[in-house]
Amino acid sequence: KPKGKWFCPRCVQERKKKNDVACFERIMPGRVVTDPEELKQFNVDWLKSVRGCSKLMLKPQTTAEVSDVLRYCYERNLAVNPQGGNTGLVGGSVPVFDEIILSTVLMNQIISFDKVSGILVCQAGCILEKLNEYLEEQGFIMPLDLGAKGSCHIGGNVATNAGGLRLLRYGSLRGTVLGLEVVLADGSALDCLASLRKDNTGYDLKQLFIGSEGTLGVITAVSILCPQKPKAVNLAFLGCQSFAKVLETFTTCRAMLGEILSAYEFMDEKCMELVEKHLKLSSPVTGSPFYVLIETSGSSSTHDEEKLNNFLEQAMTSGLVIDGTVATDDKKIKMLWSLRERITEALTHDGYVYKYDISLPVGKLYDLVTDTRARLGRSAKNVVGYGHLGDGNLHLNITAESYRHSLLDAIEPFVYEWTARYNGSISAEHGLGFKKKQFIQYSKPSEAVFLMQRFKAMLDPKGILNPYKTLPSSS
Ligand code: FAD
Ligand code: MLT
Ligand code: ZN
Q: How many domains does the chain have?
């Protein structure tokens, strides 16, 4: 057997790596990133809480290129981390080790929009806000909206089944996404990009990929049903004396506003303190322990304003609400929304953020914040609660000057056990990613986890797609 440098295993490894890069260069010339400086920002998540060490990022432009890449990676057993706008909050969007980052940043073409049906078909890398702007010009809007809209990609939204601020009105992506194109682990492309409202031909395969967090396939294109742009939008920002009043205000406004109610969000006074302190935002409504943001969207401003005014009068006279302001013009609407939307950003300025995204029966929602606050006492800097109350979704966030393992131990599994006791979900809308995958059993029976593992094994038998994410590591 010949000896020498050539057969040193490290050299063979190096040679293979060089061949890999050369192969990817052939597939997408000039769109293979190996510069360590350039790679840094794609290796770390938005919260700067998890970091990988990928040495390679690929930026395909077409589905055919994604297919070629995955076919090659499958053959060579190379792990791949699909990445959209990298705004995910559970550590799913960045590599754990040196997985290849497959970015959809250049897959940003709108394929078609049908004004009669309101169906948009686009590539997965389109930025949510850009899609919304495009649609607004045509009298439509996207059925989802979230604070990360300026960076997140529609493919990432579908892969996480993102909820956001409009879910109360337009429902989840499981209803509005009509079709998907997905490239499977072995490189084969699955064209389920239907643009039909009704299609009962067999199993609805797209549902498997919605919320699969890049573990079952790479979403390359999306067909989505978009609502008409509302002609009239009103916003009320109100202060409540207690969480019980927040709930009563919700039932009252749902009854009185009916079909025009499009968002019901809440935040506690600590959140308000943080957006004021760290982002210098100032609220026209102050001095309440809780705040709610109510949005109406409809087709007639006089009708909607009349309804809203009747509701506000009732809420004020019955003492549900102690203070408030209303906005009908775009500028004030944006300003009031930013008080709610930018809480996430304000928290990152407060220190290390322990982030929880919980579904609970709505009546129990704030008890988790109160109990966590009592449990942690002075060991936490701030314990805050906000979220999509209309969807039964609480964002419980805890800050500390810096990450401490002892604080994590005090929070977990306490928060998950608490949630399971009330049959809640430990991930309402953010997914499990890397950070929550080991806790799936708090919200899913073992039979369900086992079936998920079988799906994973069938679609990705070599486990190359976003390994170490979503499913517990025993898989
Ligand atoms: P990434 O972060 O890049 O990826 C997220 C996951 O999807 C990863 O597992 C990744 O591998 C996978 N993935 C990405 N693209 C693809 C693809 N094409 N094919 C297959 N897998 C893919 N989330 C909510 O649900 N509601 C909110 O209200 C909300 N508000 C937010 C506000 C802020 C300020 C921030 C920073 C985040 C917020 N998020 C919210 C979380 C995040 O924005 C969403 O999860 C979003 O959908 C992620 O999209 P992305 O393109 O950034 O995906
Ligand atoms: C939100 O509703 O603001 C987002 O889900 C982000 C977060 O949880 O902070
Ligand atoms: Zn949210």
A: 4
Sorted by sequence, the CB contacts under 8 Å of residue 415 that are 6+ apart come out as 356, 358, 368, 372, 396, 426
* pLDDT value of position 8: 63
- DSSP code at position 229: P
**φ and ψ at residue 87, rounded to 5 degrees:** -110, 5
Q: Rounded to whole angstroms, how far apart are CA atoms 205 and 214?
A: 15
Measured from the CB, is residue 429 less than 6 Å from ligand 1?
yes
Q: Is residue 363 part of a domain?
A: yes
91 lines ligand 1 (CB under 6 A): no
Q: Which atom number of ligand 1 is nearest to the Cα of residue 165?
A: 28
Which of the 8 DSSP states describes residue 140? B
Q: How buried is residue 218: exposed, middle or buried, by Cβ count under 10 Å (0-12/13-18/19+)?
A: buried
129 and 168 share one domain: yes
Phi, psi of 459 (to 5 degrees): -85, -25
Of the bound ligands, which one is closest to the alpha carbon of residue 435? Answer: 1
Q: Which residue among 56, 84, 103 closes a domain?
A: 103
| Contacting residues for 178 by C-beta, under 8 A, at least 6 apart | 119, 194, 195, 196, 197, 223, 224, 225
Closest CA to 134 of 105, 113, 107, 162: 113
The ligand placed nearest to the CA atom of residue 164 is 1
ipTM over 0.90 threshold: yes
CA torsion 235-238-242-244 (nearest 10°) is -30
pLDDT at residue 18, as a whole number: 76
**Single residue among 72, 103, 134 that ends a domain in this structure:** 103
Task: Please tell me the residue having the least CA distance from ligand 2 atom 2.
Answer: 387
Could you tell me the residue range of the domain that residue 396 belongs to?
351-431
324 sits in which H/E element:
strand 323-327
Q: Tens digits of per-residue pLDDT, 78-130?
A: 999 999 999 999 999 999 999 999 999 999 999 999 999 999 999 999 999 99
